[in-house]
Design goal:
about 120 residues; 7-stranded mixed sheet; 4-stranded antiparallel sheet
């Protein structure tokens, strides 16, 4: 099971990028999906998440600039990043959360699934 992220690159401050992540169907419909980012030597922090019901949540540092969305027909999530700042520079990872509900409605803890990471570099 693998998530496939794409869309990173180099952009000037104030510019925009859109990240994409293809998610296996078995995960797409049941898991909370999200984007995280990580600088070398630092912990991986959540950027934005989207639930199976479409509910979203954002880190304070990106609220109002980033938008997470999902395309149910393509089993893909996106992260639209606008007004990018140099401090947004990081490796971005998509994620399928380990917690989900099974067909009986029971909360189950499974593996955490990650994409391979895509580099976003914002120059000043």
């Amino acid at each position: 099971v693998q998530l496939q992220a794409s869309g990173g690159g180099l952009v000037q401050a104030g510019g925009s990028l859109r990240l994409s992540c293809a998610v296996p169907g078995s995960l797409f419909s049941t898991r909370t999906l999200g984007w995280y980012r990580q600088d070398p030597g630092k912990r991986r922090d959540v950027v934005a998440t989207i639930g199976s019901d479409g509910s979203t949540d954002y880190a304070a540092s990106v609220k109002g600039r980033f938008t997470i969305s999902r395309d149910n027909a393509k089993n893909t999530i996106y992260l639209q990043m606008n007004s990018l700042k140099p401090e947004d520079t990081a490796t971005y990872y998509c994620n399928a959360d380990r917690v989900y509900r099974n067909e009986f409605g029971e909360v189950v803890y499974g593996p955490n699934y990650w994409g391979q990471g895509t580099q976003v570099t914002v120059s000043s």
